[in-house]
Amino acid sequence: MTLAEKLALVVLVTCACAVVSTASPLDPDRYFLVEAEPRAQPEDYRLNDDVWPTHYDIEIKPYLEQEGNKAQFTFDGSAKITVSTQKQNVMQIKLHMARMDISAWSVTRKSDNTIIPTLPQTYDQETQILTLPLSSALQANVEYVLSFTYVGNMDDDMHGFYRSYYWEDGVKVWMGSTQFQQTHARRAFPCFDEPRFKATFQLKINHKTQYNVYSNTAIVGTAVAEVGRTLTTFGVTPSMSSYLIAFIVAPYQINDRDGMGILARPQAQNQTQYSLDVGIKLLKALDEWIDYPYASMPAMTRMYMAAVPDFSAGAMENWGLLTYREANILYRSDDSTSMQQQRIATVISHEIAHQWFGDLVTCEWWDVAWLNEGFARYYEYYATALVETNWDFEDQFVVAQLQSVMQMDSLRSTHPMTHPVYTQAESSAIFDSITYNKGAVVLRMMEHYLTTETFKTALRAYIKDRAFKTTRPEDLFSALNRYDPNARSYMEPWTVQPGYPLVTVTSHDTGFTITQKRFLVNEPDHNEQTAWPLPITFATKASEFSITRPAFYTGMTFEIPMQGASDVEYFILNNQQVGYYRVNYDAILWGKISKALHSEGFGGIHVLNRAQIVDDLFNLARGDVVPYGTALEILEYLKEETEYAPWLAAVNGLTTLSRRIHADDEKLFAAHILDIFSKAYDIVKFQAPTATERRIFTYMRQYVLQWACNYGHEECSKAAVAEFHRYHQNPSVKVHPDLRQVVYCEGIRKGSMEEFEFLWNQYLTTNMATEQLLILQGLGCASSSELITIMLDAITSPHVRSQDKSNAFTYVINNLYTLPHISRYLQQNHANWAASHGSYANVASAFNNVLARLKSDSERDVISAFIESNKNILGQAAYDSIKTGLEDYETNKQFTLRNRDEIHEFLDNKINGGAATILANVSMIVGLLMLVLAR
């Protein structure tokens, strides 16, 4: 049986099982589809504040195999919740529960165990709120105990207390783990499942003796529960939110030292040393930076970090028991790339930072989740930099965080950092790049304004003030205002207003006029009057780029006076891109900047401002602010660029542009790519990293080789294919991890079924999650219809875990050759895709990803006809989503047609017009920009 036949059989069996099983309901959080209108009033999704919990006693008894009349993947549970009220006439108690059957419940007065008479409970399936009516009112300031006995489900959707597995010597080993953020603790035990309801917890787990169990706190006792079972009791937690509880039931092993331990399946223990080493260093660094030692928090006597085979999030900050996808914590230098190592270090830093920003001090509700996630994303870079000191995190932050979030934040569909949420789907959706990236960017901006030492002092005070409590933005602003009375007025507008400004600089003899206007990439002529306090720095020579402490200016327009303004070499705003805004210049200033960029040493322009200029030009052209011809002429300077940050900004801009290049211009565009990357390729060379090269130079090589090979660089392709063939012939000698992405991709692109089957077998047999991701990237480069079909079959099969299916599909769809084949596959296999991925919401997402990259009207028409004839199967929500994707296709097409002539003229002149016309002189750039300013 061939590989294709095997995968087809697996897919058929999988989908058949999915159709007839009684698996748990689909979780909409996992899919990329706008939720339908809420089926309840927004306020009905929130608990009232009548009753507050103070302590939980929870006992869980999981069944990872059938035991008597106990079904596999269920668990028995009991919960006792101590509650009280400060109000009069409280006649009912509201709390959450989901996916469980409660067999008994009661309310007793704690002091004397008096039973409080109750009425039949009610349950709202939509809001997941359980209402317990009482026959008589609760007394104020008296403690009561809510008792529940119930049966829960260990589903396979990676939420709540769920089941996962790994293979050991060909045997499937089942285990249980948890993921409760944002609203899934209620699937493990009845609870007040909102962050504001902090309480202490004591957990007991009744487990098969051959399993080990772990939770937030240390084990304080064990006892024989029954034959073959142990009852393990954990210490009482600090006062904390329900979403931070965690427990694992698995035959794991531990690598521990100095109060920290890495938990993993036995075969992965050889991949835990780096995480342990860097985790210890990061915890110490953050202890000192925040000046509130982790060990001083009650019951936090140690920190465990667990590698979980199936995990919906990247990682989770459960207090004292951090959980991770395997690829985000397991590392070996001979099988993981440099970038994967950095990913592991920064994710660990992120989760450890949450022990203060999130666990000790917790956002009051998810509408201000940035108070958790913005800080954690900030520390990903600036705490890891304290430990891994040579990785140039400042350079990386600007492009990877600030510039990337600007893409989403330039659309009407964006939202402010502080933004109302009510439903489960809304609570999940708020965990996006606005909450994470923009949150971190605004914090960095305030750090530069306040100075690092003042910023640190203020945050230390904030943590001490709010310890074991919840927090709102006002609490943070109040802490900052103690050290600068303007802090709140400068910071708050960035958190409550969506978007960011485009700042336009106009020069005159005595200075510069600055104006601001919200940047909406698809609406350059809008009349919105939103204004922000602008953090202004500027440079007219190399030495001034180090000045990053801004002065804030308010108003739509203001002046920066300067004697001899017309004589400066250049005027560049926003030193090292500390401020969160784009900058456009008048024609004269763009001309000066272009001249400097094309001069020796780039005129002393700081590397981060070069990255800023690259990113701004691509996006100002995209937004019809600067002509594409002008932008591309200035960006010809990239042929001499040797630094990572500007190249990463360029790769991001070129990726977007490549999807909008007219189909008839793709050969010209390929020649353009090979030209601007030619010197960079000669610098990085097709070789493994040297021991002395900068880490970001290694990252730059990966991008340069990828783009060179993708666009047909002959030397790159030959070297990659040769290395793949060598590996194919002798798999015991592996490809260097930092070359694998390009080697695997080019080997598959230029190879046949034989090469594909070889690499697929490596995927099935590797013990490294990081290696599996590299292989999936390589397999996604398949270039024949047959291999693309096999790859898509593989994605729908159980061989690719649910958490990896989205990434695997992205790898395939970024190979533009595959688009028609993917479209046909989805039309022919939509039922299989929906069953494998969870719902038709994911079918809609897949089609929309195709449409976002498609350049064929005929293929668009085929998709349109398909959804019309299958509307009832798709369902209204998926149908409407694909209809929106079709509208977006038309918008993208009009964009291509509108800009085609100018882009074509630039490419044609450059490629066919000879060397003399390749680089525009300054006067040409000025002339083009004058035309724009005159419009």
Automatic annotation (TrEMBL):
It is an enzyme of class 3 (hydrolase). Residues 274-494 form the Peptidase M1 membrane alanine aminopeptidase domain. Belongs to the peptidase M1 family. One of its GO terms (biological process) is peptide catabolic process. The active site is at E351 (proton acceptor). Residues 1-23 form the signal peptide. It holds the Pfam family Peptidase_M1. It comes from Anopheles coluzzii. Its cofactor is Zn(2+). Keywords: Aminopeptidase, Cell membrane, Disulfide bond, Glycoprotein, GPI-anchor, Hydrolase, Lipoprotein, Membrane, Metal-binding, Metalloprotease, Protease, Signal, Transmembrane, Transmembrane helix, Zinc. Its main location: membrane. Its EC number is 3.4.11.-. GO terms for molecular function: alanyl aminopeptidase activity; metalloaminopeptidase activity; peptide binding; zinc ion binding. Binds 1 zinc ion per subunit. It comes from the Eukaryota. One of its GO terms (cellular component) is plasma membrane. Residues 571-887 form the ERAP1-like C-terminal domain. This is Aminopeptidase.
